[in-house]
Design a protein that fits this description.
This protein is α/β, with parallel strands linked by helices. It folds into two domains: about 240 residues, Alkaline Phosphatase, subunit A, CATH 3.40.720.10; about 140 residues, no CATH class. An eight-stranded mixed β-sheet has the order 9-8-10-1-11-12-2-13, with helices on both faces. Strands 3, 4, 5, 6 and 7 form a five-stranded antiparallel β-sheet that branches. A hairpin with a 2-residue loop joins strand 5 and strand 6. Helix 5 crosses helix 9 and helix 11 packs antiparallel against helix 12.
Length: about 400
Amino acid sequence: MTDIHDLTRRLQRASDSKIVLYVADGLGGLPLQPGGKTELETANTPNLDALAQRGVLGMSIPVLPGIAPGSGPGHLGLFGYDPLKYDIGRGVLEALGIDFALTDRDVAVRGNFCTVDDNGIITDRRAGRISSDIAAKLCEKIDKITIPGVEVFVRHVKEYRLVIVIRGDGLGGSVNDTDPQRTGAAPLKPQGADSASQKTAEILAEFIRQAAIILKDDAPANLLTMRGIAKMPPIPKFQEVYGTRAAAIAVYPMYRGLARLVDMEILDAGHTLDDQMKCLEENWSKYDFFFIHFKYTDSTGEDGNFDAKVKRTEEYDSAIPRINALKPDVLIISGDHSTPAKMKSHSGHPVPTMLVSDICRFDGSKQFGESACRVGELGMFEARYLMLQALSHAGRLEKYGA
């Protein structure tokens, strides 16, 4: 089967058209009761509903039916990369997101400060969501850890999140997460899938041992767990495969890292959605493709707070007029995965998706929500094909074949 990027390289057409991908992280949801409305359907979203009357709707599958993706695979699919082919560790994304320059001798680890009781059992996986000020000081403390034969770097990311980079020769990146993904359990022991990765696992176990001693009096952040342990992989660049100058407007480091991974330009997104819209407006003439990331529909879903996710969905909706005012040739509304508040986690449910363009084959939709998307013109499709639709509607693909 022809690789998507081989095809887009061949069919690229020069154009001054502009594409906006506006991502509501964890957008998809579930009703709290059978027959009820999801968070998206409950929210008052007049701007999204107005777009639905101009565009086409569908449901995107981030990886494969039923597979609940992490944010990395979810976004790579939206960017048109096969998430099964490009399995990117979260540690790499976090490191790139804070502008840490990874080398081929590095293994990057996403860390979470957590709370453990006297028996070493996790009672809070996010250490009460400690503030960035507190977490940054803790990172400075454990950055002093030394392990023979390797260099160790610890960098704060945001709130309870950190990056650990181990630099040395002969290290592998196939090590399991130590986060058991639930409270009431002890952190898992790092184990490598091969000899090089087992060497990494033993180094990480020693790091955790030393960190436990250093952090023992720093409750609620008295330990850390590790996720997404990986090395930097090769991956095709966005402009090379699509012929577009792409920019990312994302607040959270991980999503900046995802964009940097595919060589998007990382713009200063500030801290708020208003800041992000100002950034879009100020840079509109400089790029062809804009990726805008909105985090809070995901975090409220993970917290199990249905009402808060509804409010955040309404906030996401409120920025639509400012995007519309710039008159993008293609506007895509979607999420990287579903995060139903009912489940308090990412899920394998398809994600509501909308594409708006002057050459859409309108499907008669009146509002944007899961029920409407299930019967829309786009149908049910794998997210990695969404970029083809965007390029086509933006006039950026030549005809295939004679």
